[in-house]
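Notebook B, p. 112. Complex prediction, attempt 2.
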Amino acid sequence: MKLLILNGIVCDPANKFNQKADVLVENGKIISVGKISKNKSNVKVIDAKGKIVVPGLIDIHTHLREPGREDEETIKSGTRAASMGGFTTVCAMANTQPVVDSVSGVKFILATAKQEGVINVFPVGAITKGSNGVELAEIGKMKGAGVIAISDDGRPVMNANIMRRALEYTKMLDLTLISHCEDTNLSANGEINEGYISTVLGLKGIPKQAEEIMVARDIALCELTGGRLHIAHISTRHSVELVREAKKRGINVTAETAPHYFSLTDEYVKETDYNTNTKMNPPLRTKEDVKAICEGLADGTINCIASDHAPHLAEEKEQEFKLAPFGIIGLETVLPLVITNLVNKKIISLNDAISKLTCNPAKALGLKKGSMSAGSDADITIIDLNKTKIIEKFESKCKNSPFIGMKLSGFATTTIVAGKVIVDGGQIVSD
Amino acid sequence: MKLKQKDLLGLEYLSKEEIELILQTAKPFKQLFTRTVKKVPTLRGKTVVLLFYEVSTRTRTSFELAAKRLSADTVNINVASSSVVKGESLIDTAKTIEALKADFVIIRHSMSGAAHIIAKTISASIINAGDGMHEHPTQGLLDMFTIMEKKGKIKGLNVAIIGDISHSRVAKSNIWGLNKLGANVFVIGPSTMIPMEVEKMNVEVHHDISKIIHKLDVINILRIQKERQEQHLFPTLEEYSELFGINSGKLSNAKKDLLILHPGPMNRGIEISSSIADSKNSVITEQVTNGVAVRMAVLYLLAGGDGGQGEIINS
Ligand SMILES: [Zn+2]
Ligand SMILES: [Zn+2]
């Protein structure tokens, strides 16, 4: 099984490679990148003329909902949505029902992904049993079974001592801890960012400090323990400053943001007249925060861009704002939002954008993915920067996106996992 | 002139002219109350649904009376006690009401934005009778009507709203409306009950009424919810009463013709002393009468009326 991708611009930030080149794939591995003669027998050829060829995109933060909420998403539907968005790897958060806090849970995710998933699924295990924040989960055994990080995402670990022990323990295991930074005493019953908009709409506010206090705490604990901390969905100016400062001091911390935090502000909640697809956690912040997120992306403080794909059914979202669950889908809109709102607006280069979706998440979690080095897995995404579409249809089981109706540019046209073409011409071709 | 939208969701969404139109239109309706027959046939054949997710005898009765005095048919749906709607989503309830061919839905709900959901779902005119911490536009309008009636104007008046501004939809509607008509608006309350960035709504924030009482023309005293103590918003009711409760001592420096409003029901002895509630400066009971007139005006104008006085009285 050979595959030849011709005439594309290969953008491989891991190898600082960015030029017109061909890519040869054989037996699921990348053989070479460069000028390759077309005269090979038994080769499937993909013409990537005018397109960008990048290492398969990695989503460091996805909620696949299986087990437990297969009505919202399954490993099958979620990975299909991911493949349509150009992702070849997703890291599946542990807050399923039940929570993935044991070896059996990890095995279930891996086995189901192998059978029904169309791309790579790496399970994230819980930090604490049931993500209750009380007792450590069997992190060592889960690492043995295949988790690539641990996180209680969806909830913070409120007890600082437990967080300390988790960071110490994962340091020993060489595992990254992904933190959902939220002081739930401060954010309790909150609906949107606290400020003028929450005041005018009469919605309960979540102060930025609910996030920032925990970012500061976790950085302090990371310094204490020497563990490896990755901060999820960073959304405020001061959080960015805290991470920037910590990095300067040599603390082992990385951070991600999601496209909504550099694309939208809380004013959008008002503009859309209480549309619950603007309800996410952390909430949409202010212009000042969006600017700081963009600066953090530009100077490398924020390493990764994640979808935080959180599917919810229409009937769950079509309720009073207060009753609607937090979260939006994202797998199919990350790439066009990055291209439209960051690259095309010259906030970051295409190369930097791709690194935040490939080698940086791989590095943050220690994954052997995210590059096009010879011998690496042939996970490849081909992007048409000029393709423009109005967001309306989704492969995900849910449609809870605030970006519906928006015109965006830069979509994946081909997604290849281990040399196998999953998406071609913007359509899923493999089942 | 007519109202631009089919719904009344909040005073934020009305222009100065639309607010003035409603206040003007309420006048002849109030005159009607002095007649022996207090009813006009304006909304004959129309159906008004009163959809109340929160118990509020006062507001519901006021709306019901307003609708009846316009000869509309009224249907009460008390969701708290109704088995039909139990567990049903707001959107499904809205669709059911649509099927009943209601012309107006008056909705009271404990969550902000609930009236907006109904307004987006069905074609009937929606009147927000209070949604969460957002707005209570007819209360704001009746407060302004009362001020206008007593002071002859609103422009240039110094109006203070006292109490839990954060959780008060009455305060929000008053702030929008009074500002649009040119009043200077002050909010007074414990710092824990002043919402974030409220100054951007063009109000001056104070925590001690004694500092500004001499210049105020109107004070609107909000009801304090006792359960806020459990949310650590103030230490005890006694302390709240001492610091923010309005009594004759606090008003010793007040203008003689200071107007005192309260949306009711009052906690006598807590946010307002009995001597103040029953004083000649208090217009609290008149607010109730004016509420009916203002709500008639709103129903009439949303039904397509243009505020012509002859039409109202002769119809
Ligand atoms: Zn999270
Ligand atoms: Zn998440």
